[in-house]
Specification:
Length: 64
């Protein structure tokens, strides 16, 4: 992955993604146990050269 490119994984749809509320590292991945300023999937792709293999689609219940 080149600088500025995005991973094919959407962290917002992953059950492991969370908001940390830390100013310097606002995004986190529970599966890989790290916090970052960038999207976790972009960090994984930049370091491994592959899309995140731990992506798990969130189960969303419809309310109403």
């Amino acid at each position: 992955m080149k600088a500025g490119e995005r991973s094919g994984v959407d962290c917002f749809k992953c059950k492991h993604f969370y908001v940390t509320w830390e100013k310097g590292r606002p995004r986190g991945c529970r599966a890989l146990n790290f916090k970052t300023k960038r999207m976790p999937s972009d960090v994984v792709c930049a370091t491994s050269g592959k899309d995140c293999l731990l992506f798990t689609l969130k189960h969303r219940e419809h309310v109403g």
